[in-house]
């Protein structure tokens, strides 16, 4: 059982002993600290809350809402919703903050509270550290009985979210409808079952849903990885669909299946959408250091400049603003469209990609064939208490000093035909080793090169 407090929020497994798991006591403690921090900032005393379809979601929602109201903060409760919808609702409501109740791709026993600022973006590292300090010290004052907050229930925001997506210059609902596209979507028994049908109807798609009851009883591991998408691949072919679509429980990550049942590749979700946007609006792009090099290749092919950020959505967003990027995101299927909002948004990604298919007249396999073929491996270096990670990374930096490298987040070495990225895990005693090459064997060779160099330094 697990409880993890970090600068972006609090997450853990439901049940068990308080302080070791995500129990009602821990939920109230974290929410109270967040609400108290919000009041100290002088922000609007209003918080938007939304949750994914997890079994524990309603209980966590009720505890968080009651705690905020006890602080004198009004709550706009979206109920069952998506992470990007909550993010957009924060600004639409002119709220001081938002809370998304979701453990993203984690299994059903997990849940989390993710904290948003008044822009509907994840709170910064500095704000997260201030929040953790309040949680640790527990010096919180609650409102008097005449000043308690109220709650407003509003389930209209998914419709508003979709309406805003349809207004994007990169989305053409008529073109999608005229193309008579058929899709199969895996809703993973969560918020996708609520958000995807109205999106498909608005786009004029014929659609079929898998795992469409939003009861939180995930039909398979909820992370949209190849091993978990076999049923979607089979049904895409059986239904003679043009595209298979997989989202995670809170609908911010997106993966596609081609018409022949092959995987488009989660890393290529952002690449394809960036390609389509750059065709119309040349500019810069951003992804994190552990994302595929294909985005850089596509960006430079359109005359733009590619920038890499540290891993984490908040870091990607900061770099996108700095670089004035027209599109960005993460290689895990996270697409961030600045003209909509600065957050990963699977609904926006779906609408843009279907428009791309409709206007190009190409099948998903044909679109995928446009891009350089890269393969990624994810490996690790096991740590012991005796290993000084910072010293090890500095040693590796020195060892590979003749190569192009970055130290903004661990150590990334860019070789001519691939790369390797090493980062210390926040949850396990390991260094994560991600590598990419033109073949699976080449990618593994880059990872092995890093591991062997590390072993030599530790010998």
Which short descriptors sum up this protein?
single chain; 459 residues; alpha/beta; Alpha-D-Glucose-1,6-Bisphosphate, Chain A, domain 3; TATA-Binding Protein; 3 domains; seven-stranded mixed beta sheet; five-stranded antiparallel beta sheet; 15 helices; 20 strands; 38% helix; 23% strand; Phosphoglucosamine mutase; A-D-PHexomutase_a/b/a-I; metal-binding
Structural write-up:
By secondary structure, this protein is of the alpha/beta class. The chain folds into 3 domains: 3-155, Alpha-D-Glucose-1,6-Bisphosphate, subunit A, domain 3 (Alpha-D-Glucose-1,6-Bisphosphate, Chain A, domain 3, 3-Layer(aba) Sandwich); 160-368, 3-Layer(aba) Sandwich (Alpha-D-Glucose-1,6-Bisphosphate, Chain A, domain 3); 375-458, Alpha-D-phosphohexomutase, C-terminal domain (TATA-Binding Protein). It is 38% helix and 23% strand. It contains 15 helices and 20 strands. It has helices spanning 24-40, 57-70, 83-92, 125-137, 157-166, 173-178, 192-203, 230-238, 266-280, 294-301, 313-323, 346-360, 364-368, 389-399, 440-458; strands at residues 3-6, 9-13, 46-51, 74-80, 97-101, 110-116, 151-153, 182-186, 206-210, 243-247, 254-257, 284-288, 306-309, 325-330, 334-336, 375-382, 404-406, 411-415, 418-424, 430-437. A hairpin with a 6-residue loop joins strand 10 (243-247) and strand 11 (254-257). Helix 1 crosses helix 4, helix 9 (266-280) runs parallel beside helix 10 (294-301) and helix 14 (389-399) packs across helix 15.
């Amino acid at each position: 059982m697990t409880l993890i407090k970090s600068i972006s929020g609090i997450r853990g497994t439901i049940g068990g002993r308080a302080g070791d798991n995500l129990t009602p006591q821990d939920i109230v403690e974290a929410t109270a600290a967040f609400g108290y921090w919000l009041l100290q900032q002088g922000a609007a005393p209003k918080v938007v809350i939304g949750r994914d379809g997890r079994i524990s979601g309603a209980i966590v929602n009720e505890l968080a809402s009651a705690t905020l109201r006890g602080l004198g903060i009004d709550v706009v409760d979206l109920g069952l919703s998506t992470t990007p919808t909550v993010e957009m609702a924060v600004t639409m409501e002119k709220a001081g903050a938002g809370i998304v109740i979701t453990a993203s791709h984690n299994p059903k026993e997990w849940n989390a509270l993710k904290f948003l600022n008044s822009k509907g973006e994840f709170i910064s590292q500095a704000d997260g550290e201030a929040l953790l300090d309040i949680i640790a010290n527990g010096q919180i004052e609650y409102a008097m009985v005449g000043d308690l907050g109220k709650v407003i229930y509003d389930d209209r925001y998914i419709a508003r979210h979709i309406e805003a997506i349809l207004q994007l210059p990169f989305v053409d609902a008529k073109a999608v409808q005229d193309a008579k596209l058929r899709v199969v979507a895996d809703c993973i028994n969560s918020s996708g079952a609520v958000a995807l049908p109205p999106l498909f109807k608005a786009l004029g798609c014929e659609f079929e849903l898998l795992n469409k009851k939003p009861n939180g009883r995930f039909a398979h591991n909820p992370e949209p990885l190849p091993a978990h998408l076999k049923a979607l691949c089979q049904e895409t072919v059986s239904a003679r669909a043009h595209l298979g679509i997989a989202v995670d429980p809170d609908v911010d990550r997106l993966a596609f299946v081609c018409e022949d049942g092959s995987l488009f590749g989660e890393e290529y979700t952002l690449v394809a959408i960036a390609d389509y946007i750059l065709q119309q609006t040349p500019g810069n792009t951003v992804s994190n250091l552990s994302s595929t090099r294909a985005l850089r290749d596509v960006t430079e092919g359109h005359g733009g400049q590619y920038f890499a950020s540290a891993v984490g959505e908040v870091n990607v967003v900061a770099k996108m603003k700095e670089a004035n990027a027209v599109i960005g995101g993460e290689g895990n299927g996270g697409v961030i469209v600045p003209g909509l909002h600065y957050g990963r948004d699977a609904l926006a990604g779906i609408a843009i990609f279907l428009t791309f298919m409709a206007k190009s007249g190409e099948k998903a396999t044909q679109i995928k064939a446009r891009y350089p073929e890269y393969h990624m491996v994810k490996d690790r270096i096991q740590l012991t208490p005796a290993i000084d990670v910072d010293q090890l990374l500095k040693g590796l930096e020195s060892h590979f000093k003749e190569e192009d490298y970055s130290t903004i987040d661990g150590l990334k070495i860019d070789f001519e035909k691939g790369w390797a990225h090493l980062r210390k895990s926040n949850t396990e005693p390991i260094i994560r080793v991600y590598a990419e090459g033109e073949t699976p064997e080449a990618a593994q060779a880059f990872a092995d090169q890093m591991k062997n160099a590390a072993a030599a330094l530790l010998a």
